[in-house]
Amino acid sequence: MPSLISFLHDNAARFGRLDGETVTDLTASFDGRFASLSDAANAGALAELYAADGASVALADVTLTAPLPSPGKIICVGVNFPDRNAEYKDGQSAPANPSLFIRFPGSFVGHGDDLRRPPESEQLDYEGEIAIVIGAGGRRIEAANAWDHIAAVTLCNEGTIRDWVRHAKFNVTQGKNFEKSAAMGPGLLAFTGPDMLADIELTTRVNGEIRQQDRTSRMIFSFTDIIAYVSTFTPLKPGDVLVCGTPTGAGARFDPPKWLKPGDIVEISADGLGTLSNGVRDEEV
Question: Are residues 143 and 87 in the same domain?
């Protein structure tokens, strides 16, 4: 299935469509309407890009970046699988409401780039997730209608600096936003309907070893629940991104913990959505 991507070519930021090993550069295809894939997403125009014409470039000649360079909002969901919830041992079979936090665009790299381990901590951890991109905005969207508000789907490694998450009592923001500590991509797949997401397997591998694996049908809060809940307190707009939760099995849950280290390869895959692959290296300071 073709996907929409952002990439660097000849040191210039571009956007286009990836189909197999061929990139169709769409940057000049809309008479200046869109300077980036985010511009198209924010205009609710992603569907136009899947069929547009442009110059062809070999995939080998470009560097992929995070698909959306400047989304309006990136809202992430925590504790959204039963086994993940059980890690907290608080006696609750499930949380009453989603746990939410915000991520900044600069915390993400694209497919094939390296996650950066900062000098402040060796506790770089992985979290494989599915992200949805809003295509039709709204406020107080009913769950029954929420599928109609999704434009595209992608994969996310919601990388976390685990000890920084625990710096404060009720706040994970700092541990979730180290520069280039997470990844998103490879590209945006057009949302084709509920069957695309309702019961697919999500898997995280580190150096080929399965670390996380679960099915979206077991999510505590479904994709439509998340859209309904978030849109209750803030309007969702085209181009907003919702990152929808990770299964149990993050590195912090092993004894001793299995933190990511330079040279590791992390792969996030899901049925029908492809694979997001990233290496790891130390941040240069």
Answer: yes
- Number of compact structural domains in the chain: 2
Q: Are residues 144 and 221 in the same domain?
A: yes
Residues whose CB is less than 8 angstroms from the CB of residue 192 and which lie 6 or more positions away in sequence, other chains included: none
- What sections of the chain are H helices per DSSP? 37-42, 46-49, 82-86, 162-165, 223-233
pTM above 0.85, yes or no: yes
152, 46 Cβ separation under 8 angstroms: yes
Q: Are residues 58 and 78 in the same domain?
A: no
Closest to 68 in 3D by CA, of 17, 115, 5:
5
What residues make up the domain containing 277? 74-282
CB distance 129 to 252 below 8 Å: no
Contact status, residue 240 vs residue 72, Cβ threshold 8 Å: yes
Whether residue 165 sits in one domain with residue 119 = yes
Q: What is the pLDDT of residues 151-203, one digit of tens each?
A: 999 999 999 999 999 998 888 999 999 999 999 999 999 999 999 999 999 99
What Rg do the C-alpha atoms of the chain give, in angstroms? 18
DSSP assignments along 182-210, one per residue: EEEEEEEEEP--GGGTTT-EEEEEETTEE
SS3 (DSSP) at 225: helix
